[in-house]
Amino acid sequence: MINLINILMQIIAYVFLITGIFFVLSTAVAMIRFPDLYTRLHAGSKCLMAGSISVLMGCLVLEGINLNSLKLIVIIIFLLVTNSVAIHVIASFANNHKIKSKTITKNDIED
Questions:
Q1: d(C-alpha 9, C-alpha 103), whole Å
Q2: What is the sign of the dihedral through the CA atoms of 27, 82, 67 and 2?
Q3: For 34-102, where are the alpha helices, taking DSSP H only?
Q4: Which of 17, 20, 40, 68 has the fewest CB atoms within 10 Å, i.e. is most exposed?
């Protein structure tokens, strides 16, 4: 029974890790592909947050219940608080300095 629980915990942890890696890689692709600052900020805030929390949750499941898991929970809470605030500050700075977003025209779609 104990062995079955360990296998189940490893499967759950690997699902979290693979999901997190997918979101982090999609963030990297979005940073290259998206045309302007605002869409890149969106990808950087949403996908990177989902990816990093998924990876940390996978590490949390693999680690078990001890002091290291408490540290991982503190890191997750820190990411939840600071990432949204940082992205908001960057976006409001860009808006205050009149940085325009790129509009997609029909010619851009046909190319």
A1: 46
A2: negative
A3: 37-63, 67-96
A4: 68
The first and second tokens of residue 72, run together, are 């991982």
Structure confidence by residue, pLDDT tens digits, 22-40: 999 999 998 888 888 888 8
46 CB-contact burial (10 Å; exposed 0-12 / middle 13-18 / buried 19+): middle
C-alpha gyration radius of the chain: 19
Instruction: Give residue for tokens 């062995």.
Output: 3
Instruction: State how many domains the chain has.
Output: 1
Q: Which long-range contacts (CB under 8 A, 24 or more apart) does 47-53 make?
A: 47/23, 48/23, 48/24, 48/83, 49/79, 49/80, 49/83, 49/84, 50/20, 50/23, 51/19, 51/20, 51/21, 51/22, 51/23, 51/24, 51/26, 51/27, 52/20, 52/24, 52/79, 53/20, 53/79, 53/80
Say how far apart CA 79 and CA 46 lie, in whole Å.
Answer: 12
The backbone torsions φ and ψ at residue 101, rounded to the nearest 5 degrees and listed phi first, read -85, 150
* pTM of the complete model: 0.81
